[in-house]
Design a protein that fits this description.
- This protein is an alpha/beta fold.
- It has helices at residues 53-63, 160-163, 192-198, 202-208, 245-258, 263-288; strands at 32-36, 40-44, 47-51, 67-75, 86-94, 98-105, 108-115, 121-122, 134-137, 144-145, 155-158, 164-165, 173-174, 185-191, 212-216, 222-226, 230-233.
- The strands form 4 sheets. Strands 5-4-1-9-11-14-15-16-17 form a 9-stranded mixed beta sheet, sandwiched between helices.
- Helix 1 (53-63) packs across helix 5 (245-258) and helix 5 crosses helix 6 (263-288).
- The longest helix has 26 residues, at 263-288.
- The protein is globular, with a radius of gyration of 18 Å.
- Mean pLDDT is 90; it is low at 1-9 and 11-20.
């Protein structure tokens, strides 16, 4: 397995970039988070751009002063620049990258899968040490196996890539799933449609080991569930840019929790970052890309 290299930053394949240091968190050190999941190539209005959880979650961690590392499967067809704010922990080579065509109609979005990776991210074959403060697992098309995660740090999980039915040239649909229990599960995220399709209840998720749940309702806000409490957060400024906001929410909330901020405070600050991103911050990201 590749050894972690502090200076190994985002790049076009084989190209190194200048390092920028993260800011120190509440505990006096830089929070390091490993993002596990794939980049995507998104075809929007016949134009290609990169996307996926590593991009959006990594951007949130970077803006908050942390260091975002990526563990992804990437195809030979990926010719885009990986942004400098991402550090590469490990890239698993493949022939194809996950590619979606986005269709927007009546304030809704359809995803058509054009290509996908064949290789999987299997923790059994990886030795991920405790260099990281947390691991954020957010697949896009069933590329991650949650079994045998040999770490001793908090884990955040987004359900989307575990319930998607990914068939080439077909619209993405959802099916029920099961997740292995893990005492290190900390934060769970899904939108309400994904949760209802997953076959998992709030009670099921707590039994699996999750301590806090973020359930999104798109432009209506999100709910935070803890073992003893439930609180709804309504947005105050809904921006026009919606892509990646769930990834921003999960990553920023997880970052603040790793910084020892309480759940309510973390949710408030994560909500603020999502609103900033959907109104203004996305322009900064698009410029970087």
């Amino acid at each position: 397995m590749d050894k972690i290299k502090e200076g190994r930053r985002g790049r076009r394949r084989g190209r190194k970039n200048k390092r920028n240091r993260g800011r120190r968190g509440r505990r006096g050190r830089v929070i390091k988070i490993l993002i596990v999941g794939n980049f995507t190539i998104d075809l929007i209005s016949e134009k290609e751009q990169i996307g996926g959880p590593p991009l959006y979650s990594g951007f949130a961690i970077y803006k908050l002063g942390g260091e975002a590392y990526i563990l992804s499967v990437l195809g030979k067809d990926f010719s885009h620049q990986i942004p400098n704010f991402l550090r590469i922990y490990k890239i698993i080579d493949d022939n194809n990258t996950v590619k979606f065509k986005h269709l927007f109609q009546n304030n809704s979005r359809k995803l058509i899968l054009l290509s996908k990776t064949n290789n999987k991210i299997n923790f059994k074959s990886l030795v991920i040490n405790n260099y990281f403060d947390g691991i954020l697992i957010n697949p896009v098309c069933n590329e991650v196996n949650l079994e045998n995660i040999n770490v001793n740090v908090p884990i955040a999980v987004d359900i989307q890539g575990f319930i998607r039915t990914c068939k080439i040239n077909e619209e993405i649909s959802y099916s029920s799933t099961s997740l292995p229990p893990n005492p290190l599960y900390t934060v769970f995220h899904s939108n309400i449609e994904e949760l209802n399709s997953s076959g998992l209840s709030v009670e099921d998720l707590f039994k699996l080991g999750f301590k806090e749940l973020l359930i999104s309702y798109d432009e209506e806000g999100f709910e935070l569930y803890t073992i003893n409490n439930r609180k709804y957060f309504k947005p105050t400024q809904i921006g026009a840019y919606r892509t990646g906001t769930g990834d921003i929410l999960l990553a920023s909330y997880f970052y603040y929790r790793l910084n020892n901020l309480d759940p309510i405070g973390s949710a408030i600050k994560a909500k603020e970052l999502v609103e900033w991103f959907s109104n203004l911050g996305y322009q900064e990201l698009l410029h970087i890309m």
